[in-house]
Amino acid sequence: MSVIEVRNLRKSYGSTHAVAGVDLEIAQGEIFALLGPNGAGKTTTVEILEGFRERDSGDVRVLGFDPQVQGQNAREFRDRIGIVLQSTSDAGDLTVAETLHHFTGYYSKPRDADEVIAAVGLSEKKDALIRSLSGGQRRRLDVGLGIIGSPELLFLDEPTTGFDPEARRAFWTLIRELRDGGTTILLTTHYLDEAEALADRVAVINRGVILEISDPAHLGGRSTSLARVQWESSGQMREEMTAQPTAVVTRLTSEFGGEIPKLSVSRKTLEDIYLEMIGHSEGDSQ
Amino acid sequence: MKSLPSTLALGLRRGNLEIRQFLRQRESVVFTLLFPLILLAIFGSVFKDTIAPGVTFSQYFVAGMIASGLVNSGFQQLAIIIPMERDFGSLKRLRGTPMPAASYFIGKTILVLASMFFQVVLLLAGGVIFFHLNLPTSASKWITFTWLILLGTASSTSLGIAFSVVPKSGRGASAVVSPVVIILQFFSGVFFIFTQLPFWMQQVAAIFPLKWLTQGMRSVFLPDSFAASEVAHSWETGRTLGILLIWLFVGTYFSIKTFKWERE
């Protein structure tokens, strides 16, 4: 069953085509990552799906709703989604627990606030004022507020910006648990390793169009791309691109009669593929 | 499946939260609640004359301070705080939840009403204790007082929410909003006796609610004999009610139509 269905979505700001014909289909229980440089149309697409922006044309269905709904239907729509925005920085005069308890009142089937506090790792900061939290802790509170209504669909916009590596790992575990519990997750991120670690499928978007949708391992022909074997010979680095790196290494082993100097075998990372797809100049402009 | 909570229930929940948040900003609480009393002390000490038989300037000034309190707590406070909430992203976050806009507006109204309640209690108590303020004795005056506070709060709140789209950022909001309020206070007979203001000033003031709130409060705190000294030689209670209702309608209309949940 599709949670998100998008056909030929378009949105322009003046003469700029922010989204120029996007098609998407995201299944229930999937973690889907949307990748693209700033200004690629990522945020516009997501905000249309969240109901924050109106589209110019195209068909959009999110959990069976048109996200542009108003009134009571809008409430029912928002009761079933969770949104973690890129930057929120409340004045912070409330505690973590007060804030989460308050938000439980908005939803028809909220999660237990204390359980959510524990899930996002803020139990020790439960009674701390939000203004006293570190950037990473505030981000975890944002995530807590995003999942407090037991959403069927969770939007995560750059969720781990400012996290230390340990907090990121813990966050990834949380997201996988949500997915395993049936929540569909639409993730936008700048971190390619995050997309690789979490996403079941990724879409690369640039200039308002989707370049490719695939699982991270196969994106851009990555799985069939040639491996690069590098080594040193007579003081110079040599390299060979090959579909059979093992054969090359075996050959080199016998040539050198044992250890191959400075040997490395590598394949393209998701980041290499991504940068090739969007073009290096645009990749640098982030 | 359990259904969504009602707009009113959520509005009360928001009001509770708004008050709690407000009380945590100590400096702001002290300033907001004590400022009218401080002004009364200053003006009461400077102007010792009586304006009319049995009417001291303090008595006249209390009416203006309560009316100003309505404009400060509602219009001014909200037109400054809402752009800040918008900058922080907290409004956008609320927009993404099933909480209806009306609940947010109800919450703000409750905050303003609570703040007015404490301001009025402090101002009247301080006035009676230190400045020989005479409180009204008839029930009808207290009834007028009550509807003026309620309707004043509602219209001031709605206009503050509506005006919150004017400041482009939270940082600049105070510079945009405060002069509007101060000029209105001068024009509306808060700091000076209204009938002594130039005619054109009176005419401009008559367009806006503050003049009517001030005059209405005078009808509560001054003896009925003073009505003859007003511009219209009457308290114009009916007209006050009508004009406040019109502004409430205008404020509510624009709050609903033009409210912005996120920064441009």
Most extensive chain interface and residues per partner = A-B, 29 and 26 residues
Tell me the CATH superfamily of the largest domain in chain A: P-loop containing nucleotide triphosphate hydrolases
The general outline of chain A is globular
Distance between the termini of chain B: 37 Å
What integer value in Å does the Rg of chain B equal? 19 Å
SSE class of chain B: mainly alpha
Mean pLDDT of chain A: 89
Spatial strand order of the main sheet of chain B: 1-2
CATH architecture of the largest domain in chain A: 3-Layer(aba) Sandwich
- First and last CA, distance of chain A: 35 Å
**Low-confidence stretches of chain A at least 5 residues in length (pLDDT < 50)?**
none
The total of helices of chain B stands at 10
Give the number of domains of chain B: 1
Please give the domain count of chain A.
2
**Please, how many helices of chain A?**
10
Structural class of chain A: alpha/beta
Strand content of chain B: under 5%
